[in-house]
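pls design
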């Protein structure tokens, strides 16, 4: 899949989720011309619940404020952050009528077998693009 400038924006914003939120682990993903497939892991154990009152604001050696146990955003909020930031950047880049579909489809992966099947589907999705009803 060769991404255009808008596809690169979508991919860059996806990668930024992992950089911005320490508990996000991006597994397989692909940005397609009209949709995105991805496996996102939320590692709640790495940050706790975010509700631990003993973990108050701290400062590091540069006196910058640090929050040792950030509140973990639910998947819907993470997707909202992604869609909002991506939309703004794509519209700024010139695609004024860009819009995401409402909501998103999610599925909890419960077994290794399911993980590998879904991962393989995602990674091979570009090979099936010519079969998509929106392919031109």
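designed seq:
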């Amino acid at each position: 899949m060769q991404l255009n400038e808008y596809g690169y924006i979508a991919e860059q914003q996806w990668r930024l989720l992992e950089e911005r939120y320490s508990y996000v682990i991006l597994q397989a993903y692909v940005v397609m011309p009209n949709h995105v497939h991805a496996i996102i892991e939320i590692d709640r154990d790495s940050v706790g619940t975010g509700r631990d009152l003993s973990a108050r604001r701290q400062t590091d050696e540069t006196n910058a404020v640090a929050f040792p146990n950030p509140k973990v955003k639910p998947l819907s909020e993470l997707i909202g952050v992604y869609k909002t930031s991506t939309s703004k950047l794509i519209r700024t880049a010139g695609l004024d009528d860009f819009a995401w579909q409402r909501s998103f489809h999610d599925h909890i992966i419960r077994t290794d077998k399911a993980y590998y099947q879904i991962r393989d589907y995602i990674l091979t999705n570009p090979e099936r693009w010519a079969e998509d009803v929106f392919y031109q």
